[in-house]
Amino acid sequence: MSSISIFSSGESEKRWVLAMEKNFPHDHILDIDFNTPPCVFTLPKTLSQSKPEAYTPQLLGLGPYHHLRPDLYSTTTHNLKLAAVTEFLGTENLHKFPHVVDALVQSEPLLRSCYDQYIDLDIRTLSWILAIDAVFLLHLLKSYSPRDAKMETDILMVENQIPAVLLRKIRQVLEPPDADGNSTLYEEFHFFCQNHSPLQLNEHIKGDINQVHLLHHMYYLIVNNVTIQSPFSTYSLQLTDVIDGAHFLADQGLPGAGITAQVLTFMQKIPWDKILGMFKKGNSDEQNNNPSVEEIDIPSVSRMSRLAGIKFAQLTSGGIREIRFDEGEKKFYLPIIKLTASSEVVLRNLVAYEAASITEPGSTLEFAEYVDLMCGIVDSAKDVDILKRENIVESELSDEEVARIFNGISKSMKKSENKSNIEEAIDSVNTRYDNVCGVRVKRFAVKYGCALFKFVSLVISIVVLVLLILRAFCSVFGCRSLFGEIFTAQNRNLVLSSY
Predict the structure, then answer these.
(1) CB neighbour list of residue 420: distance below 8 Å, 6 or more residues apart
(2) Are residues 23 and 143 in the same domain?
């Protein structure tokens, strides 16, 4: 019986043993959390085989999964990374770079836990790879301006992510102790994602440092773009004035003013959008996370518009969680989506990341639902034209190119007991569409027309067969004389009966 192993050689096995030993140090205790889930995933072929180039970096490999690929490790690309490292550090700080590598070496358990596959590399080799790629990414984000669209798209691929925890650790080595590296990293993530996200991001979540990497930042702010506002959002300026006034009174010695200021400050910082969003979405742990590959059952935009009189309108605020169908207005409300030549790759990798991280607590397949919806309602350039006229789709691409994007993405619609707002909208649209008289007649014709056609064809075939048999009979026995005798006998019987 042959065995299967991740080890390619004896040296590979020794590296694995050394990596395991780092998890259980003899001389000191490390803060190692073995429950830390991976955040950078390799995609199964079943997901990427439909269009491999959409999931595999074409110009730039970041991290251990693609850094050493021969087709990406060219002198030009390598020098580009080293030049970015030099520019980011500055000539006077180049001596700090080995300290970055050493910091990553000391964090080997954390470093390896970020990836879903075992990395068969010596820890120093792995640390050098991540140090170079991480500083290159930090430089690109810090000095970002739209340049090479293909290279920037590579940065947003699932397998090409650099964990944010490593970026923050590197910043701690390179920056002064009092620098707010977390806030800066969030802002740089946000600016980059704003320029590449096909859907609007939530602009109310500020400084959240729990984003695991760049792609997750984009995904998180797309899915959580909701219109739920803080109870104090309308009066944010007045509340700030009240807090300032309470602090002033506390400084003047007024009893209770200090406590009041603390309470109001605490209330202002509570993330009301997240808390209320949890109640709105329900318990996500009860949802069935098994996606289906079947296409959703929904008519195209042009059919809904032409046959059912359904209109389409853009959401003035909010995102995919606000999608709905208004029965009274006969309007389907959808968020604005901006598409460029690289948008298909971004959409595919967002769906892939969502699927790869579905085992995480609180995870859903909401983004896949949205993409499935768009794939279902966009069949042709006519559908795109209607959505463009309603300012739901914004793109310089032709209508045919936009339709091709949605027709090329595999469907991944999930089925669950607790319906999402998208599933409820789909059901409402289908109910409205199915009750239209013209649609019912057409579906009846489609359903029974084939059977009716087969029946008529059978009758015609039988008649033709009878005629052919009769013709053959007549050619032998002479139908005229035979039928003449029959007719004569019948007439004779009629005459005799008359007497």
Answers:
(1) 281, 364, 366, 369
(2) yes
